[in-house]
Amino acid sequence: LLLPLVLPPFVGAIGMRRLLARFGTMNMALMNAGLIDSPVDWLGQHKFWGVLILQTLHLFPIMYLNVVSSLANIDPSLEEAGRNMGATPLSVFRRITLPLAAPGIFAGSAIVFIWALTDLGTPLVFEYREVVPVLIFDRVSDMGENPEGYALVVMVLLITLSTYFLSKRLFGGQGQAMLSKNLSKAREHRLTGSGALAAQLAFGTLILLAILPHLSVLLTAVADRWFMTALPESFTTAHFREALAHELTVPSMGNSIFYAMVATAVDLFLGVILAWLVSRSRSAQARYLDMLAMLPLALPGIVVAFGYVSAFHHTVLDPRRDPALLLIIAYSVRRLPYVLRAAYAGFSQVSETLEEAALNLGATPARTLSRITIPLIGANLLAGGILAFTFALLEVSDSLILALKTNSFPITKAIYTLLGRVDDGLALACALGVWAMLFLGTSLLLANSILGKKMGELFR
What we know:
This protein is mostly helical and 460 residues long. Helix content is 70%, strand content 1%. The chain contains 23 helices and two strands. The radius of gyration is 24 Å and the shape is globular. The C terminus is likely disordered.
């Protein structure tokens, strides 16, 4: 279920274009099966649905991570008490589980909506230009003469903040804090018969759809000859060797890991502080602080990157000299909302009485935060930290614009650079994308192994 997180969206879009081309896998398979007589122009008349489907497949793990971390914080004894009082399973879910999981559902929904609203890479690769981020991108080149791009950015900010504020007032206003942290494990109910079959079919279909871009990228990377056939006619591993042997590959991987690790550490530090101020403060300013911290998600990355280039031109942070520090700053700012929303959901589920008890016993606020609050929201911080690290590692807009020196290229800039090669650029870019998938997938499995839990319980 977490596989969509380990592929840059624009690389997935490249794979889907190969899959949905006029003589791509989809059309050739349908024609071979006799279901259609001529190729369907999926990328011509149906670009909107291509963008929508790819965004859905890429973003649903964000909802999954936030909801799982919230469900893990719910004490199962509350659900058992509802069943003991005679409530049906559906009633328990609707009246107990769903309201207690509301902070995580709201956090995931806010991030998914804002991401989809401001996504640039996917529409660009699909050549679907009837979305606001692409309109802004088209006006970046004449930002000095034409103020229309700035007006579009302001419009996006107003839409995003208005929707976020309205959703918070409607769905996020009620506190769902529990007096005690969930220390007991929920009882497993093993499905059998038709219920088990229905669950397997549902999850199997979802996972198959989610990994279609990955499969397309993998097939492109290993294809030796692939022309007007559903699958490659012959296979080779030469593209993987050439991608690793390229002078950009290994340094770019090291750069991306370093940038993402530092940015994640900064986000965890700032995210906990901001979430604590927003959730525990009674002042009206805390609400606006929450909105300001969410602004980086509302602003398209292409505009953020160009703003940094303009603001730090001819200064010590000029990306033309050394873009490393500016890339870390950009990654930190852009991914801070993930940690903030995850931490805020955790604070919303931890009763303030636990902190007040520690303060009454003489603990300082810093000691209370480090010894009581942070351990209680550890699952939320882990979920937010993995999201921040993953998306920082796969950041596209900031990487393409700010990485102006070859020795500072992150992995996404290296993939984009290889894609420009005329003869074998597509195959090498997909091969490097596969290496990136393997690395990130190994990171998730390693975290799972260290915690000693199943993947579904990783964020408990």
